Each structure stands twice: as C-alpha cells, then as structure tokens.
Amino acid sequence: MAPRPNTGPIDDAEAWIIATPEATYASTAEAFGLGPQSIRARILNRYGSLAAARLAHANGEAAVYQKRILGPVRRCIRCGKSSVIDQGRRMCDPCGADVARIHDGAV
C-alpha cells in the first residue's frame, strides 16, 4: 500500500477550524498559510458544511465523513454544456439519445 501523502497543514487547519467556534475560513487560512478556498473545499467535501462538522464535534461524536464522490465534469462535444460524463464518453445523455435516434449503428 502506498504511504499516505503529507497533508499536514490542511489536516491541522481542518481540525482547528472545527474545534474553534470563533474561527473563520480567512483567519484559519492566515494562521496555517493556506488559501481560504482550500479549507472551505476540504470541509464541504468531507462534512457537507462547517456547521455540521462543528455540531458533531460539540456533541462528542466523530464528525460524519461524507466524502462525496465527485464525478468528472466535461463539456459535451455536441452541445457544449458541462455535465457529469464518465466512462470515456464525450457526449451528454440527451445528445447521445438524440444521436442514437438518428443513427442506426450501421457503418
């Protein structure tokens, strides 16, 4: 198994902002030398919200680690709209269905 990457400052900042009720994203970022958006993204992706993480910490529970699975967002080559496209596809579902209606699969 690969060693865990060194994420010391962001881990420390995450623990501190959850445990300190008067802490803000800006003050935490300044204290730990990080960007406020990196801390905000870490909290939102793991716990859903800072309030939920603080509430669980205040109740003595382990904070709910949601770890949302973010899908790859790409632009459709047909309509150009951003959508969650995975598995190596290049078109969104509506465009794929439209093309399937027109094209019968013959080469």
For this entry, give a set of tags:
107 residues, mainly alpha, 2 domains, two-stranded antiparallel ribbon, 5 helices, 48% helix, elongated
- What does the average pLDDT come to? 82
Query: Oligomeric state of the chains?
Result: single chain
Low-confidence stretches at least 5 residues in length (pLDDT < 50)?
Answer: none
Please describe the biggest sheet, giving its number of strands, its sense, and whether it closes into a barrel: 2 strands, antiparallel
Number of strands: 2
- For the biggest β-sheet, the strand order reads 1-2
H-E string = HHHHEEH
* Percent in helix: 40-55%
**Percentage of residues in strands:** 5-15%
Question: Shape from CA axes?
Answer: elongated
Structure in words:
By secondary structure, this protein is mainly alpha-helical. The protein is 48% helix and 6% strand. The chain contains five helices and two strands. The protein has helices at residues 8-19, 25-32, 36-47, 50-58, 93-102, and strands spanning 73-75, 82-84. It has a two-stranded antiparallel ribbon. β1 and β2 form a beta hairpin. The N and C termini lie far apart (46 Å).
Compact description:
This protein is mainly alpha-helical.
How are the elements arranged and paired?
Blueprint: H1 8-19, H2 25-32, H3 36-47, H4 50-58, E1 73-75, E2 82-84, H5 93-102
Antiparallel strand pairs: 1-2
Helix pairs in contact: 1-2, 2-3
